[in-house]
Amino acid sequence: MSDHFDLIVIGAGPGGEKGAAQAAYFGKRVCIIERAPKPGGAAVNTGTIPSKTLRETALYFSGLRQRGLYGVDLRVKHDITISDFMFRERAVVEASWSLIDENLKRHHVTVVQGSAKVVGPKTVEVTRFGKDVREITGDAILVATGSHPQQPKGVAVDGTIIVDSDSLLTLQKIPGRMVVIGGGVIGCEYACIFAALGVKVTIVNSKARLLAHLDAEVGEALRRQITARLGISVQVDVEVTEIAVEGEHARVNLSDVSSIYSDVVLFSAGRVGNTEGLGLEELGVKCNQRGYVQVDKNYRTAVPSIYAAGDVIGFPALASTAMEQARVAVCHAFDLRYKQQVSPVLPYGVWTIPEIATVGETEDALITKGVAYEVGRSSYRINPRGQILGDTDGFLKLLFDPDDQRVLGVSIVGEGACELVHLAASVMTFGGTIDYFIQGVFNFPALSDAYKYAAYDGLQALARRRARIPGLPSTGEQRAVKT
Fold it and tell me: In sequence order, what DSSP letters do the residues of 113-182 get, joined into one string?
């Protein structure tokens, strides 16, 4: 078989798989190169799917969803083992491998295992131990190699005491104490998972709040709930000055001169693009200091025949956006009049305990931009479904334009948040207003009914404010002016 293809894809993660399938769907001859023994990238093997599966496992073993619901307070089984904990995770990962293989075979995509190096604008060399170097050419190249955890300074990740989000999954036993360095998505998700299993967890975050890129009210709600519900200790606005291994434990020194001792330290303070050794910069492809490939709106690099998509290009670094970016890149590469751009409305989910999901603007962003807005809120406490589920701390926060009532952003904290957010995303995609929630009919009892009452709340707040002083700007307008 000839080693020339229409498209060469480097990396079989979500972006690589979907980009390859998209091109093959339109009759292109595609080759996908993956250096790992199994496909799926970090999303399947070390990140998205494993962490979300482990979350469900932790909720099951801990009985957190049932605590207080039926007048009982369940606890983690005292004899739970790491095998108990990881069984479901391995089953789901293996199922994902099979589904990816089926998809690539169905689209007749050629799969080559080995390490890739781009040696020309249309040429890739593949190296595999014990095999001759194989040269593959293609009319276009899509780089979808993902990212890896940034490593701590002054101490090595050993997979036992000092771990990152990759090596965490290889722990041989559940620790008694854990320090999580970093208050971002990955750090907060794993902190909640292990705390649910009875681990004494401390989060150390250099920023002033958890999940700093989300709405401030959301970050504070998460801090409050994980402290009260899971017993997690949260230290913010403090730097780690040293991490040291002492025997079978670790010592973490902080900038406030305090120290924390732990059985395991999870270092989760950012990621780096997987571009080292790919040969991209030698060809003129530009990468930043964190190894992220620089691309244009069509995901094309400075070399016209080379495209990049997914985590390797940086923010937002989501599996969902990686798939869409790759599809857009492939359509542009072959002038396919199918998918021309990634939707500007991107739902964002965080599988902490409780779940968090957002879409669109936050209050801070609107204030910075000087955009007027109004706020409507609804609590799970007044929602019958929330009462049935035992989640009375959840809430939905709705931001909208005070003039035309167009939805500007939504943040949700609580059970089902990562599913509920798509309703807001759909309304926003079509430029919809909160009138959709007012006029719509929702199943009863259902958590989605919270949208209706958040819309009512926002309209009432707007009406009260304008009734008191005719012509008075909304809260959002006042804040924007003050800022």
Answer: ESEEEEEETTEEEEE-TTS--EEEEEEEEEE---EEEPPPSSS---SSSEE-TTGGGG-SS--SEEEEE-
